[in-house]
Amino acid sequence: MQQAFGNFQIHSRVTVGSKVLRIQQRLGNGAFGVVYKVIDETSNVYALKDVVCLKGSDIRNAIREVRTMNQISHENVISVIAAEQFQDARGLHMLILTEYCVGGTLNERLTRQSSEEINFKWIRQMAAALAFLHSRRIVHRDLKADNVLLTATEDVKLADFGLAREYIALKRIDASRDDGSWMSCYTQYYMNSGVGPIHWVAPEFFSGRYTEKADVFSLGTLFFSILERDFVMINGKPMYGAFKRIPGGGKVGIGYAMANYGSNITIQFSPYAQGSGALKRIAVDAMQYNKNDRPSAEEIHNRITNIQGSVRLSNSGNQQASEGWCC
């Protein structure tokens, strides 16, 4: 068992698996834990997530995260290096060591301008990662710009699988919200912490009927956030997504608006949005109220790949025409 630490102090040491690590920086808080930047004895840098498990459902969530992330290997999904646990006065801690992404979160990056090429890369890589997860019967459940990390070359890494569960388990409908289930824990955290209403989730989340198509809806809000750059301020921080302005209610997430103000509510891009009409259409299709009207993650990935192929062909044709003119 790991030695007992509460809140880790900068420069303190901690052992996870076979690695002795030094705490360098506190990066921030996730839904179920604190994340630190750490370095090992050979100067390799990692991210360390400390999840304090105060009750049985928290322990199950933490163990599920480790098991889920150990199952998957994809270039656009964060890699788990090791895991450890220890007990102190606050409860059982689960330590999860992952690769470190120097580029920070997509939510932070969206505060700055980016090119159409970079935007397309982010969208393509997120679609590829989600299609892969769904092909492995894994649903992320918490897709938002704060859970998309970027490498030094601004490649995408989907992270924070604290709520992920095998796809087959989602065929059951959770009728009760006070049974210690993931939804009870998730809703309680967001609604009672000043973060709610939840801005990136599908409308069916609020009725408890959640399948992999809810991930698709959240993916659509991510696409919208990249192309439109709309946000709301939460605790002094801009949070990017897809929003609807409700008279007397301010801006709320499009899924929340659909669930609480009418299923006929839609969202539109402004004239200032980036991206092609085809990309915008994909985002809007992903954010349909009825989950059966949404494409699958694989279909979205295929559509984006086709767009990329068309652009390459067009560029190739333009280059040939230019070379012919020169000659």
> What spatial form do the alpha-carbon principal axes imply?
globular
Spell the H/E element sequence: EEEEHEEHHEEEEHHEEEEHHH
The tally of beta strands, per DSSP, is 14
**Helix count from the secondary structure assignment:** 8
pLDDT averaged over residues: 81
**Share of residues in strands:** 15-25%
Largest sheet: 6 strands, antiparallel
Q: Kindly report the spatial arrangement of strands forming the biggest sheet.
A: 1-2-3-4-6-5
N-to-C terminal Cα separation, in Å?
A: 73 Å
* Radius of gyration over C-alpha positions, nearest whole angstrom: 21 Å
What would your notes on this structure say?
With 327 residues, the protein is α+β, with helices and mostly antiparallel strands. Helix content is 35%, strand content 23%. The chain contains eight helices and 14 strands. The strands form five sheets. Strands 1-2-3-4-6-5 form a six-stranded antiparallel beta sheet, covered by helices on one side. Strands 7-10 form a two-stranded antiparallel ribbon. Helix 3 packs antiparallel against helix 8, helix 5 packs antiparallel against helix 7 and helix 7 runs antiparallel to helix 8. The chain is globular, with a radius of gyration of 21 Å.
